[in-house]
Amino acid sequence: MNHSDHEKYLLESIRLAMGNVKGRDRATWPFGAVLVRDGKVLAQAVNQVEDLCDPTAHAEMQALRIAAKAQGDTDLSGSVMYASGYPCSMCHTAMLLSGVKKVFVAYSNEDGEPYDLSAARGYEELARPLDQREMPVITQRVRDAGEDLYEAWQKAVDENRATV
């Protein structure tokens, strides 16, 4: 893809975000996303956190959901995400795990900072040592009697692979 293609998809992400903000009865977030692979748009989405009362319904997450459901597979390898704003750490991780190879953004963290729209806090939290995080994750080793959960999962994966 060339520069004008990137600009085209970024402009579309901004238009989606603007449409999500303007002319609505209730306030929402100014984010839109376009997921593309090999020059084909796989999904377009807007932030739906308020509409769905779902804190994970960010534009990038919604685009991933739409694309994965449409193709019947969560592997979105080789795709490129175009987002109106800098992705939060949740969206970044979901894109990484689903195979998105690159992300282009129209507005940086610095652009969002004056409006409390910077994603920096999440990245800073994850960069801290585990014992210094604002929200600790506490491991309490509890096991149900019988087969181990992770061993059962691995067995199911192996059996599924054998039948494919």
Quaternary assembly: single chain
* Biggest sheet architecture: 4 strands, mixed
- Portion of residues in beta strands equals 15-25%
Supply the helix-strand structural class: alpha+beta
Helix percent band: 40-55%
- In DSSP terms (H or I, runs of 4 or more residues), the helix count works out at 7
Task: Work out the number of β strands.
Answer: 4
Q: Which fold name fills CATH's third level, the topology?
A: Cytidine Deaminase, domain 2
Please trace the helix and strand order, writing H or E for each element. HEEHHEHEHHH
**Alpha carbon gap, first and last residue:** 35 Å
The overall pLDDT average reads: 94
Please name the fourth-level CATH homologous superfamily. Answer: Cytidine Deaminase, domain 2
Shape: globular
Q: Total domains, how many?
A: 1
**How many whole angstroms does the radius of gyration measure?**
19 Å
**CATH class label:** Alpha Beta
What strand order characterises the main sheet? 2-1-3-4
Low-confidence stretches: none
CATH architecture annotation name: 3-Layer(aba) Sandwich
SSE arrangement:
Elements: H1 3-21, E1 32-37, E2 40-46, H2 49-52, H3 59-71, E3 80-85, H4 89-98, E4 102-107, H5 109-112, H6 120-127, H7 149-163
Parallel strand pairs: 3-4
Antiparallel strand pairs: 1-2, 1-3
